[in-house]
Every structure is written in C-alpha cells, then in structure tokens.
Specification:
It is a single chain. The protein has 9 helices and 5 strands. It has helices at residues 8-16, 38-55, 73-90, 101-113, 115-125, 133-140, 143-168, 173-180, 184-196, and strands spanning 22-26, 63-67, 171-172, 200-203, 208-211. Strands 3-5-4 form a 3-stranded antiparallel beta sheet. Strands 1-2 form a two-stranded parallel sheet. α8 (173-180) crosses α9 (184-196). The radius of gyration is 19 Å and the shape is elongated.
C-alpha cells in the first residue's frame, strides 16, 4: 500500500489501542512507484502528527517514518529493530512521559474526534509542495507553522478536550484549568467561543460551564 493512503486515524487508533510506537515505511522521495508521490503526502502528515503528539505531551519519536526501496530488506530490518529498541527505552505509552492514564485517554479521544478536521487542514491549509526532506523539516520547525498550528490545531484541540470533560459533568473554570493545564484567560476564551456557537452554557460571572 502506498504510504500516501495512511490516514491520521490509523496512527491515533494504534496509540488509542495501546501501541507504544507507530512505524511507517515507504518509497524514497522522488522514487514513487505509482507517480502519485504519496510519500510526500505521508511526510507532510507525519510531521504534523508529530507536532500534535508533542503538544499533548507524547514523545513524537514514537511515530517514525523511513524511506527505502523494496530491495533494501537488510536496511528495513535494521531500521525496524532500531525503532523497536528506541520505543522500549521510552517505556509504555503515557507512562514514559509521566501522563496519567485518564488524561492520556482524554487527549487521544479529543484528537480522534478531530480527525476529519485534521484531514481538511492537511488538504486545504497545509498542502505543501516542497521537494526535499530538509525543506519540510525547516517549515515545520519555523515560526509560520507555529502560528498556523496555534490557529488551526491547538485552540480547537483544547475546546475538544473541554467538551469531553463537560460531557461527564459541569465544571468550574478553575477545574477545567487544573485538568487541562490552561490559564484562566485561555479557558475563558475557549468557553466564550463555545458558548457563542451554542455548544456550552457559560457565564463568566458564574465561573461554571456545562454542555448546552
């Protein structure tokens, strides 16, 4: 299967089901067997997902992409063995990062709910057309991407987590801040935005929120 068909859902489904690492192996760049250059699409996706993982407190090295030809069996074995060793050294997913199990599950559920939106971001706002791995890495480590990430992903991920928490019970702003490590101003901003959309009932003077 072309790596261009790997969907963000596959990656986070694996993590949600307890996998400690995800490996994606594909053709070398500029050596696409199907002339679709799907490996560039996969590279773009992997770099975005790594940033999302870092944002929620997971080691991004748990997701790895390597490029090689179908004839390089020895290289494939070496790379996979190295990745397995690396993941074992990290420890179990979440535990290795010091995340409590319920918080890990909440964050992964919040991302899973956003998968259709993440696909849209990749297809519409982050449809990059670079030619080298270095160019992609330079973009994803730059200020422009960080601005886009906050605008397109980070804020919506915070709202997704808030909505999941409020499904359980109404919460005060302070409780939301404590659970999600948000500042009071961040929590109020997200709650006000959600209230304007009719998703939550929230009044700043009452300092409490519930699902609409």
């Amino acid at each position: 299967m072309c790596t261009g068909r790997v969907d963000p859902e596959y990656v986070f489904r694996a993590f949600s089901r307890g996998m400690d690492g995800v490996f994606i192996g594909g053709c070398r760049l500029e050596e696409c067997n199907y002339i679709t250059h799907g490996n560039y699409h996969a590279l773009n996706m992997v770099l975005l997902l790594k940033r999302i993982m870092s944002h929620i407190g997971l080691n991004p090295e748990r997701l790895r992409q390597e490029f090689m030809s179908g004839s390089e069996g020895t290289l494939f074995v070496e790379v996979v063995n190295d990745f397995v060793k690396q993941v074992k050294e990290m420890g179990p997913l979440g535990q290795g990062e010091g995340l409590e199990e319920d918080m890990l599950k909440l964050r992964l559920r919040a991302i899973t709910k956003m998968i259709p939106y993440i696909r849209l971001v990749l297809n519409e706002r982050l449809r990059l057309q670079f030619h080298t791995l270095e160019e992609y890495k330079r973009f994803y480590s730059g200020e422009e991407f960080e601005r886009l990430f906050k605008e397109l992903i980070a804020d919506k991920l915070a709202i997704s987590q808030i909505m999941l928490l409020l499904r359980e019970k109404p919460l005060s702003t302070g409780e939301i801040c404590e659970r999600l490590s948000l500042t009071p101003s961040e929590a109020s901003r997200h709650l006000n935005h959600s209230a304007r959309q009719g998703l939550v009932n929230y009044a700043e003077n009452r300092w409490c929120a519930s699902l609409a």
